[in-house]
Design brief:
heterodimer; A: alpha+beta; Sufe protein. Chain: A; three-stranded antiparallel sheet; 4 helices; B: about 425 residues; alpha/beta; Aspartate Aminotransferase, domain 1; four-stranded antiparallel sheet; 15 helices; 17 strands; globular
Chain lengths: ~150, ~425
């Protein structure tokens, strides 16, 4: 019925938005960061436990649209055991993919977000948790946003 | 309103929506492969051919600067600009043409009142009364003022999802230490129509200055500032078939006289010396620099157009569309509706269980529907209602009942899509 939309709302995305993984607070988080898009109300807090510059555990809490929620959920699934440098490299790849649709190499589960590039207004939803995780690792205390204007 | 348009309105009680739609060139297009259904009128309305042509005609024949040229084109531009002011005064039944100040829109009108009038007349400890359903543009200018002069802001509470103000407690809030009461005529996120005349009457009896945000009401029905008996009233051209970047601030003559200039520059002065200047008369005192002349020309054409259609008829039809949409939505499962059950303006605000407003709006857009999803510049109200955002469909007289039925159909599809 909505074939054109299946690129954006793939079953995996709907599944993760309804049943987000790692959706809780980490009490002993070594770093946290908040992403907030006030215009659409997407709100995500990431909790990380870093050991020797490697992500030992990661979780998130928050509320928002299907895209932002699924993005945060799949992000937490994908980043366990990754180093800070891995995260930065992956951020660049995800950013390129959601803005151009082209994945650089095997993106695994993250490939479901390639369709977002056809919906420019929604790129900010998909990329919000990624900005937040980079900010968390950098130890930036300010909440990040991917909206240029806040209405 | 002139007698001619009143007669026309009575003779033809129903709107001929199909022929009206043909006067709006933008409506005749497909979006994402589907006929456009434009339901974001509370954000901005579309423009009829008459308005587009008036602006073109002005630029093709009459364009020049106003109030300063001796030459023919400058005369024409000045005449057109001041004719627009006279028309705006007539449109809202102001007593004097000089009570009309042209602004960029409602937001600038309210800022002018808060900054220029407010800074002169409010002092530490004075109270500013707003309502919990105000748009950011009727909150933030007052916060800036309150911070500057040490005044305190209070809010008349909204009941609950029904979105009505608690009028039984109005006396508790309207007290003699309140200096100004600023409120929206029609809520852009709830569709509530506030009893503006009653508010003004109660405020007047206590000597409280009233500021009416008429952004959603101007152009959606008759508007009479003498009947309302308000002190200030602001509206935008672009929400009532006019161009963007032009709006009107109405202020009672004696209040405008007692208000210092808002911005300095050309046109707003009488004399300028290197160390001291004197101000032009009201309203020119508030219009520094070259004004938005083509905007006024377009707004003039929009006011003529709306009166040709008939503002009473527009209001009736608007309410019909709002009621129709509300009833149909109330029949759907998993829909939370905001705003009053009855007596609502032509817009509906709602949430679908388990579907975020932005996902809903994205999917609707793929079917050619222009809806709004978000906090509608009402963040404090959204927080109070316990939501982040809502989806909104807002109507104007060129929308049809069939479009509402199709909206309901697409909402059902969206529900199925996200619960598959």
């Amino acid at each position: 019925m909505f074939d054109d939309l299946n690129d954006l709302y793939q079953q995996v995305i709907l599944d993760h938005s309804k049943c987000p993984r790692n959706f809780h607070k980490l009490d002993h988080a070594t770093c946290t960061a908040q992403g907030h898009n006030p215009l659409c109300g997407d709100n995500v807090t990431l909790y990380l436990i870093m050991e020797n510059n490697v992500i030992k555990d990661i979780s998130f809490q928050g509320s928002g649209c299907a895209i932002s929620k699924a993005s945060a959920s799949i992000l937490t699934d994908s980043l366990k055991g990754k180093s800070a440098a891995d995260v930065t490299a992956l951020f660049d790849k995800v950013h390129a993919m959601v803005t151009t649709g082209k994945a650089g190499g095997d993106m695994g589960k993250l490939a479901v977000f390639a369709g977002v590039h056809k919906f420019p207004a929604r790129v900010k939803c998909a990329i919000l948790p990624w900005h937040a995780v980079v900010s968390a690792i950098d130890g930036n205390p300010e909440p990040v946003t991917t909206e240029s204007q806040n209405g | 309103m002139n007698t001619e348009s009143c007669t026309t309105e009575l003779d033809h009680p129903a709107l001929d929506v199909e022929s009206i739609r043909r006067e709006f060139p933008i409506l005749d297009q497909t979006v994402n492969g589907h006929p456009l259904v434009y339901l974001d009128n509370a954000a901005s309305s579309q423009k009829p051919r008459a308005v587009i042509d008036a602006i073109c005609r002005y630029y093709e024949h009459d364009n020049a600067n106003v109030h300063r040229g001796i030459h023919e084109l400058s005369n024409r531009a000045s005449t057109a600009y001041e004719a627009g002011r006279k028309r705006a005064a007539q449109f809202i039944n102001a007593k004097h043409t000089s009570e009309i100040v042209f602004t960029r829109g409602t937001t600038e009108g309210i800022n002018l009142v808060a900054q220029a009038w407010g800074t002169r007349h409010l002092r530490k400890g004075d109270k500013i009364l707003l309502t919990e359903m105000e748009h950011h543009s009727n909150i933030v200018p007052w916060q800036l003022l309150a911070e500057r002069v040490g005044a305190e802001i209070q809010y008349l509470p909204v009941n609950d999802d029904r979105g009505l103000l608690d009028l039984s407690r109005l006396d508790e809030w309207l007290t003699s230490d309140v200096k100004v009461f600023a409120f929206t005529h029609i809520s852009n996120s709830l569709g509530t129509v506030n009893p503006a005349a009653e508010f003004c009457k109660r405020a007047r009896s206590l000597g409280i200055i009233t500021v009416v945000d008429a952004a959603q009401s101007a152009g959606h029905g008759p508007l009479d500032v003498q009947e309302l008996d308000c002190d200030f009233l602001a509206f935008s051209g672009h929400k009532m078939c006019g161009p963007t970047g032009i709006g009107v601030l109405y202020g009672r003559q004696e209040l405008l006289e007692a208000t210092p200039p808002y911005q300095g520059g050309g046109d707003m002065i009488a004399t300028v010396d290197y160390h001291k200047s004197t101000w032009n008369k009201v309203p020119h005192k508030f219009e520094a620099g070259t004004p938005h002349i083509s905007g006024v020309v377009g707004l003039h054409a929009a006011m003529d157009y709306l009166d040709r259609i008939g503002r009473n008829r527009i209001a009736r039809y608007d309410h019909e569309l709002g009621a129709h949409a509300y009833e149909e939505l109330a029949r759907l499962k998993g829909i939370r509706l905001f705003g009053p059950h009855i007596g609502r303006a032509g817009l509906v605000s709602f949430l679908m269980t388990d579907v975020h407003a932005h996902d809903l709006v994205t999917v609707a857009d793929q079917r050619g529907f222009a809806l709004r999803g978000g906090h509608h510049c009402n963040q404090p109200l959204m927080k109070k209602l316990g939501v982040e955002s809502t989806a909104r469909a807002s109507f104007y007289f060129y929308n049809t009942h069939q479009e509402i039925d199709r909206t309901i159909e697409v909402l059902k599809e969206i529900q199925n899509f996200f619960t598959r």
